[in-house]
Amino acid sequence: VDAFARHQPRTVAFDANLTPQVMSEILQECQRQGIPVIHDPTSLPKMLRILPAIQKHQPAPSSRPLITHYTPNNFELKTLYDALRNKGLLETDHWWSFIDSLQLDSNWRNSVERLAKRSGQEWISQEGIAQMMVSLLPWVENLWLKCGDKGVLYLGIQEDQETNTPIASNRTSTKAIHKLPLGEGQAPRKLVMAHYAAESLPSIVSTTGAGDSFVGGLLSQLNRRQDWAESIDQIVHTAMGCAERSLMSERAVGDVEALR
Q1: Are strands 12-15 and 37-40 parallel, antiparallel or unpaired?
Q2: Cα–Cα–Cα angle for 248, 252, 253, rounded to 5 degrees
Q3: What is the 3-class SS of 84-148, one letter each residue?
Q4: How far apart are CA 196 and CA 173, in angstroms?
Q5: Quick one: CA dihedral 123, 125, 128, 131, positive or negative?
Q6: Cβ count within 10 A of residue 39
Q7: Distance CA 27, CA 154 (A)
Q8: Fewer CB near the terminus (10 Å): N or C of the chain?
Q9: What residues contact 47, with CB distance under 8 A and at least 6 apart?
Q10: Which neighbouring-strand residues pair with 83?
Q11: d(C-alpha 124, C-alpha 116), whole Å
Q12: Cα 74 from Cα 140, distance rounded (Å)
């Protein structure tokens, strides 16, 4: 808390190497001060250390979720989803109230299925990935799902502002967009899902550090852009570029000078 008061961080990022108590205190203080948080699960053995903080938090439609950005891979997403379900956290009145406030209907489901088909990623709907991601929204505002050679799948709640920001590359496919109902005192918001395809690489030297490089690139880009949602395609393009350069390097962090 003292460090937050001295430095007033723009964004706080942490992984699951910390103790559950420390993670809980970080999240509580950041929420109190309105500081965005990025959390990376780190590994399957460590990722559930975040559960005590989630269990303490009672989500409400009128409040911002506990975690601003969460960066799991497919296995970590499924592990957290199963843990929340087993503890009954996906059946509480608070959870139902939040999910119900989104008013997701057949139009949303159809748009997700279209996104999956057009991007050639039918697993998004067939394996229940979209449903799992939506189930985390009471606690996580933006999910960045790292899918290996299948790219990145984003789901998040954004302010509903009309922008003409050009797409940075051909990574992105059709986006599923759902305008959220207006809550009392809330600005217009929307729920967005987008798939970003991985580029074909000439060779893969090592996978060590690729996930961390993606998160580092993501954090760097989010810190540079106050209205980051207006440039989400460029942000993902850069973060994925960091991961790809790691994959082609003998070092955990590849040469990212061209991405600066």
Answers
A1: parallel
A2: 80
A3: HHHCCCCCCHHHHHHHHHHCCCHHHHHHHHHHHHHCCCCHHHHCCHHHHHHHCCCCEEEEEEECH
A4: 7
A5: positive
A6: 26
A7: 22
A8: C
A9: 16, 41, 72, 76, 79, 80
A10: none
A11: 6
A12: 16
**Token pair of 37, please?**
């948080």
* Phi, psi (rounded to 5 degrees) for 114: -65, -40
Tokens 């580092």 belong to: 216
Cα(49)–Cα(1) distance, integer angstroms: 20
- Mean pLDDT by 10-residue block, N- to C-terminus, for the chain (260 residues)? 57 94 94 92 94 91 90 96 96 94 94 92 93 97 93 92 52 80 79 88 68 87 80 88 78 56
pLDDT given for residue 231 in this prediction = 83
Report DSSP letters for 178-243, one per residue. Answer: EEPPPPTTPPPEEEEEEEEPPPPPS-----TTHHHHHHHHHHHHHHH-TTGGGGHHHHHHHHHHHH
Question: What pLDDT score does 223 carry?
Answer: 83
Distance of CA 242 to the CA centre of its chain: 17
The whole-number pLDDT of residue 202 equals: 62
- Helices 210-224 & 232-247 angle (0-180, nearest 10): 150
Residue 154, classed as helix, strand or coil, is: strand
Tokens, residue 33: 């001060």
For residue 31, the Cα-to-chain-centroid distance in whole angstroms is 17
Dist CA 115 CA 110 (whole Å):
9
